[in-house]
Amino acid sequence: MKNDGTIVVKIDGNSGQINAANWTDIVDVSAGKRHVLGLRIDGMVEAAGSNNEKQCEVSEWDNIVSVAAGYNHSLGLRADGTVLYAGEDETVRKQISEWADIKSISAGNDFSIGLHNDGSVITVGLDDEYKKIVSEWKDIIAISAGKEHVVALKKDGSVLATGLNNQGECNVSKWKDIVSVSAGALHTIGLKTDGTVVSVGSNDYHQYDTDSWKDIRTD
Predict the structure, then answer these.
(1) Are 130 and 150 in contact (CB under 8 A)?
(2) How far is 213 from 183, CA to CA, in rounded Å?
(3) Do 44 and 61 form a contact (C-beta atoms < 8 A)?
(4) Is residue 61 part of a domain?
(5) Is 125 a residue whose pLDDT tops 80?
(6) Residue 67 belongs to some domain of the structure
(7) Whether the Cβ atoms of residue 32 and residue 72 lie closer than 8 Å to each other
(8) Which of 9, 38, 100, 104 sits in a 20 to 30 Å window from 27, CA-based?
(9) Phi-psi sector, 171: left (phi>0), alpha (psi -120 to 50), beta
(10) Helix (H, G, I), strand (E, B) or coil at 178
(11) 199: helix, strand or coil
(12) Alpha helices of the chain — where are they, by DSSP H?
């Protein structure tokens, strides 16, 4: 996203064309596997890319303050703490329509997570085992969904994670002094208070060669 409210999208040769060059007044963006969401300053949402599972049908959304693009679905957080869903799964749509008092959202492969104002977390689509673990989390201030794992930042700067851990992407129990977290497909990164970055999980494509990074900020 550029300072003038436009965005630049780079995709691989097999993902098709994502046409967002004419978007303006964008204040937030989120990229899924084959689609991109853009939140406009007026609370409306733009979408471009694959719509094979209706994940881009967001033109009627309004009063949105945050967006999240998953593998084949989209989420929009409204100012009143409710969440909108775009995708083919009507059961998931109904479940998410009942969410309330949400302050943050994130979308994974086939699941969605929401952070309540009281620091608890709600999920749709996770396996029962992982869903139970997440339901017991408390004092959470930030969440991030990877391909098939969930990461949460606690008030005390520690980090929780659950889900598939085939590449060690959930091995965050020893992290401390963290101020921001982000979950990728098979890896997780955390920003520390001193501006350095810690990482776990797959590094097959050098996705977290961050040892030389210094003075990183969240804004």
Answers:
(1) yes
(2) 18
(3) yes
(4) yes
(5) yes
(6) yes
(7) yes
(8) 100
(9) beta
(10) strand
(11) strand
(12) 90-97, 128-135
CB atoms inside a 10 Å sphere around CB 195: 12
Domain that holds residue 90: 1-100
Any domain includes 210 = no
**pLDDT for residue 15:** 46
- Looking up tokens 């084949």, which residue turns up? 72
- Confidence at residue 207, expressed as pLDDT on a 0 to 100 scale: 79
Is position 40 within any domain?
yes
CATH number, domain containing residue 20: 2.130.10.30
Nearest CA to 121 among 110, 108, 133? 133
Calculate ∠ Cα 177-180-183, nearest 5°.
Answer: 120
């008030």: which residue's tokens? 155
Using alpha carbons only, give the angle 109, 135, 127 rounded to the nearest 5 degrees.
40
Contact 131, 115 (CB under 8 A): no
Q: Return d(Cα 209, Cα 116) in angstroms, integer.
A: 33
- d(C-alpha 155, C-alpha 47), whole Å: 33
Determine contact, residues 181/156, Cβ cutoff 8 Å.
Answer: no
Our count of domains for the chain comes to: 1
Token pair for 189: 């990164």
How far apart are the C-alpha atoms of 78 and 56, rounded to whole Å?
17
More confident residue, 24 or 209: 24
**Structure token digits, residue 107:** 């979308």
Q: How far apart are CA 46 and CA 22, in angstroms?
A: 10
